[in-house]
């Protein structure tokens, strides 16, 4: 599993399954071993796939993020993930279980939004240190209307005091016009593959949207 974790540095399509199996390293069973062997068979069948980097006319930082509410049946914690693009190129991604249990899908999505915002700030800081010019406002694509409204409308704050830190962290960036949060349909959400298992057809689309190809 340690080797597979290193592989996710260049194969984002493996992020969810590797993260999932790593959660059971303390007490693995034959079921988990079967899952690992299936991952290895998938890797063997897709050895020619790699992350393609192309020249991009845009230097905007954009993020697709998602969360699968209460996905884990053992502790009901949600899984979130994001894909950060610089122009048309994928440069950062993650899939991980959230540290606390969320009481609603909006809360889970908002925690994912806060995590994605922190990554955006790091990427923009890195670009600035490298003296690479880029638009000051990053664009985040969200498929949860509740989380989108919460980022800009303080009326919802009274209902979500248990995520107050994330609320202020994101809303401050929105107020400074450093975040442009836009709605996207769930079917078009690229980060969906970082939060749940998907069918073979959706996996092909997931790889295509992440710029993973064999040529």
Largest sheet, if any?
A: 5 strands, mixed
- Uncertain segments are none
Please give the alpha-carbon distance between the first and last residues: 27 Å
- Summarize the amount of helix as a percent range: 25-40%
Q: Using DSSP, what is the number of strands?
A: 7
Averaging pLDDT over every residue, what do you get? 87
**SSE order in H/E notation?**
HHHEEEEHEHHEHE
What does this structure look like?
- This protein is α/β, with parallel strands linked by helices.
- Helix content is 39%, strand content 18%.
- The protein is built from seven helices and seven strands; from the N terminus they run αααββββαβααβαβ.
- The chain has helices spanning 2-7, 15-22, 30-45, 105-129, 145-150, 164-175, 200-209, and strands spanning 50-51, 61-68, 79-86, 89-97, 138-142, 179-183, 212-213.
- Strands 4-3-2-5-6 form a five-stranded mixed β-sheet.
- α4 crosses α6 (164-175).
- It is globular and about 50 Å long.
- The protein starts with a helix and ends with a strand.
């Amino acid at each position: 599993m340690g080797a597979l974790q290193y592989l996710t540095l260049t194969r984002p399509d493996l992020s969810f399954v590797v993260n999932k199996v790593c959660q059971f390293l303390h007490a693995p069973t034959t079921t988990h071993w079967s899952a690992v062997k299936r991952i290895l068979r998938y890797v063997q069948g897709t050895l020619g796939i790699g992350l393609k980097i192309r020249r991009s006319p845009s230097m905007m930082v954009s993020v697709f993020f998602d969360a699968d509410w209460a996905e884990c049946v053992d502790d009901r914690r949600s899984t979130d993930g994001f894909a950060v693009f610089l122009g048309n190129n994928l440069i950062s991604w993650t899939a991980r279980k959230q540290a606390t249990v969320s009481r609603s899908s909006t809360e889970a999505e908002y925690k994912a939004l806060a995590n994605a915002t922190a990554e955006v700030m790091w990427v923009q800081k890195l670009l600035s240190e490298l003296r690479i010019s880029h638009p000051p406002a990053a664009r985040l694509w969200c498929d949860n209307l509740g989380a989108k409204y919460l980022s800009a409308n303080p009326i919802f704050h009274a209902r979500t005091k248990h995520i107050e830190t994330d609320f202020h962290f994101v809303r401050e960036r929105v107020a400074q016009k450093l975040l442009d949060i836009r709605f996207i349909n769930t079917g078009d959400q690229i980060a969906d593959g970082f939060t749940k298992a998907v069918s073979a057809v959706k996996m092909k689309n997931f790889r295509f949207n992440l710029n993973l190809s064999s040529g």
